[in-house]
Design goal:
Radius of gyration: 15 Å
Structural class: alpha/beta
CATH architecture: 3-Layer(aba) Sandwich
Number of strands: 4
Number of helices: 5
CATH topology: Collagenase (Catalytic Domain)
Strand order of the largest sheet: 1-2-4-3
Order of helices and strands: EHEHEEHHH
CATH superfamily: Metalloproteases ("zincins"), catalytic domain
Helix content: 40-55%
């Protein structure tokens, strides 16, 4: 699993490994090989992500994370081949604010937002209750493996 960071050196090696493991777990749960998978990860300010959110979703407000999937048919991925899943954009300011609001670490919030977004790249959505439950269950499975589940 390769993650292409827009800003090198933003995270230490431990965090980079955690993000790569999170993405690999998401991909493996969908029956795909993580070795050839690639995701780009960009961090933006609230103003930058607000502009993207408005341009692509018609919502003129900042958000915490956006996903831009590149694959529509996963059966087209050649076994053992390389493939780009898509782009993930996270607002670091919003992630920090949410971590404080929810009472957990910034690391946990960033990894959660990344897992959420990778699920979107893999075709998950939360437009109805059944899809939302399925997606939340997958997110919680991945976060538990990473020992970053929600604490009561």
């Amino acid at each position: 699993m390769r993650i292409l960071y827009s800003e090198e050196g933003l995270f230490d090696e431990s965090m980079q490994k955690k993000l790569a493991k999170a993405a690999a777990l998401c991909v493996e749960k969908e029956g795909l090989g993580p070795d050839g998978a690639e995701i780009s990860l960009t961090f933006m300010s609230r103003e930058e992500i607000r502009k993207l959110n408005n341009d692509y979703r018609g919502i003129d407000n900042h958000t915490d994370v956006l996903s831009f999937p590149l694959i529509e048919d996963f059966e087209q991925i050649a076994p053992g081949g390389d493939y780009m899943l898509g782009d993930v954009v996270i607002c670091l300011q919003q992630a920090r604010a949410q971590a404080e609001e929810y009472g957990h670490s910034v690391e946990r919030e960033i990894v959660y937002l990344f897992v959420h977004s990778v699920c979107h790249l893999l075709g998950f959505d939360h437009m109805n209750e059944a899809d939302k439950r399925r997606m939340r269950q997958r997110e919680e499975e991945i976060m538990a493996v990473l020992d970053l589940e929600r604490r009561a």
